[in-house]
From TrEMBL:
UniProt xrefs under PANTHER family: BED-TYPE DOMAIN-CONTAINING PROTEIN, HAT FAMILY DIMERISATION DOMAINCONTAINING PROTEIN-RELATED
Protein name, UniProt field: Uncharacterized protein
InterPro entries to which the protein is assigned, alphabetical: RNaseH-like_sf
UniProt superkingdom: Eukaryota
């Protein structure tokens, strides 16, 4: 399966949409490229509006870490679609792989032991119930399930490690009282070795949160990776890895000797050294863009003070293919700087995410030149799939908005139709003149389905639809028909006319 997402700067800031889902048996670079080109063609999307291609860091997609191959999706897209496309490897994959490479440098295979502990209890419910008794006996320890983990699932190792550490006293008592376990687990929790193994679990509980990145823009991800590299480099030369680790290291030194403590510290430093090298290797191709686009993050009011006409031009050329030689932006740079400086006292502005900041600035008259370089999609009608293929909004955190196109049967939702189309209907005066104006005539002179009678019925029942959608955004088509008294054809016509009128890029609507 090949899902194709698009990310764009819209009226609400950064937005994400699922464009299409394809299936392909061969999975060759040429076939994947053709699937992407097919989606662009099907939805009438101008390839020149695309700035970057983001995918997993496989040879099929990018041709290896050096990106020198000719038969990969990135190279074929540059040749066939847009020569200026920037290749952006998946940052989440890079960080996840880096943490896995780092754990290989540890003297204890924490991921394997963590999964073995979970497997021991998940295979027999009696064992899990017995552990619950030890949780009560040891003290106030919550008998919580151990989350699953696999190498291909991001971030789950940290969850499993953290849960095991919470259960550690109960696990010690359990495994010391039973022979019904592997030799590795028996050795791990024995009195002589427990502190040694716990030290490695605590180390990963301390280190792994550094790799848990949030949903960043392209510019933010580059800056964040730079900060992470500096942080990891410093840790590779450090001997302090959290207070709990420090306490256990002191205990190990007293009980097992300083040479054991030194071996543990060396493996911890090797973890950070290996992760740093891996991240630098796989993100080196993005460094040139970071130098050009750092100021766009607007971390504070001084962010643009060092920006001159040359650096601004390079920034625009990086994100836009419409830069012409006759554009003069030097005279507008001063006005842009003054506008940003005037926002210095506004603390609320500087706490906004980067896309929300630019959403505000690009509406300012002093940014009219810069906003003119942002590609404007051509208004083309796009009709593909059923009415059921709508966008369902999902909140992620406080300010991040993600929407996914979910192919589902006979479904209508508040985000796409209810919030926009219904609002437009409510604002329309309920007069006969409007009903007459809404009537359309076909080529043979007869009224269409959205004629006078139908329009009056729509106006009379629109409140019922609105209330229904507010109460349940995922209301089915049948329920809307029943509550509103409108036919399916009428509802489809509303969806077609109202949703296609939205001035948002890539809000696709059905026939």
């Amino acid at each position: 399966m090949f899902p194709i997402f698009i990310r764009f700067f819209g009226e609400n800031g950064i937005e994400n949409r699922l464009l299409d889902v394809h299936s392909n048996a061969t999975e060759t670079a040429e076939d994947v490229t053709n699937l992407i080109k097919k989606s662009l063609f099907d939805y009438n999307l101008d390839p020149q509006l695309f700035t970057s291609f983001c995918a997993d860091n496989t040879s099929t997609n990018f041709g290896g870490v050096k990106r020198r191959g000719l038969n990969n999706v990135y190279r074929l897209l540059k040749n066939d679609v847009n020569a200026e496309i920037v290749g952006v490897g998946c940052g989440s994959h890079v960080l996840d792989n880096a943490s896995q490479k780092g754990t290989d440098k540890l003297l204890v295979n924490v991921p394997r032991l963590a999964m073995e502990i979970r497997s021991h209890f998940s295979s027999q419910s009696k064992r899990w119930a017995k552990l619950g008794e030890f949780c009560e006996f040891v003290g106030e320890i919550k008998h919580e399930p151990l989350p699953s983990h696999a190498d291909t699932r991001w971030l789950t190792l940290l969850l499993l490690v953290t849960r095991i550490l919470k259960l550690w006293p109960a696990l010690e008592s359990y495994f010391r009282s039973t022979d019904d376990c592997s030799n590795d687990l028996k050795k791990m929790f024995c009195e002589e070795k427990s502190a040694y193994y716990q030290c490695y679990f605590l180390f990963l509980d301390y280190a792994l949160p550094m790799f848990n990145a949030n949903d960043y823009t392209f510019v933010e991800s580059i800056a964040d990776i730079r900060k992470l590299i500096l942080q990891l480099t410093a840790k590779s030369e450090s001997t302090f890895f959290g207070f709990q680790v420090q306490k256990l290291l002191e205990k190990i030194e007293m009980e097992q000797g300083k040479h054991i403590q030194d071996r543990i510290l060396t493996s911890f430093q090797a973890f950070f050294k290996r992760t740093t090298d891996y991240i630098q290797e796989w993100t080196s191709s993005l460094e040139e863009y970071g130098d050009r686009l750092d100021w766009i993050m607007l971390e504070d009011s001084t962010a643009v003070e060092s920006v001159d006409e040359e650096s601004l031009t390079l920034s625009i050329a990086t994100i836009s293919s419409v830069l012409a030689e006759d554009h003069f932006i030097g005279s507008d740079l001063l006005e842009m700087k003054e506008t940003i400086s005037s926002l210095r006292p506004n603390k609320d502005f500087w706490e906004l995410p980067i896309d929300k900041k630019w959403r505000i600035l690009l509406r300012n008259k002093n940014f009219r030149v810069l906003s003119s370089f942002i590609p404007k999609p051509k208004r083309k009608s796009v009709y593909k799939a059923d009415f059921a293929k709508e966008f369902h909004g999902i909140k992620k955190g406080k300010d991040d908005y993600h929407a996914h196109c979910i192919p589902c049967k006979d479904e209508i939702n508040l985000t796409a139709m209810g919030k926009t189309a219904i609002k437009q209907h409510q604002e329309k005066p309920k007069h006969k003149e409007n009903a007459k104006a809404a009537a359309t005539t076909s080529a043979d002179g007869t009224c269409s389905k959205m004629g006078i009678a139908t329009t009056v019925m729509v106006e009379a029942n629109i409140d019922a639809i609105c209330e229904l959608l507010r109460a349940n955004p995922r209301t089915t088509f049948d329920e809307v028909e029943e509550k509103s008294g409108l036919s399916r054809d009428t509802l489809q016509k509303i969806s077609h006319e109202k949703l296609s009128a939205q001035k948002k890029f890539c809000h696709f609507v059905p026939h």
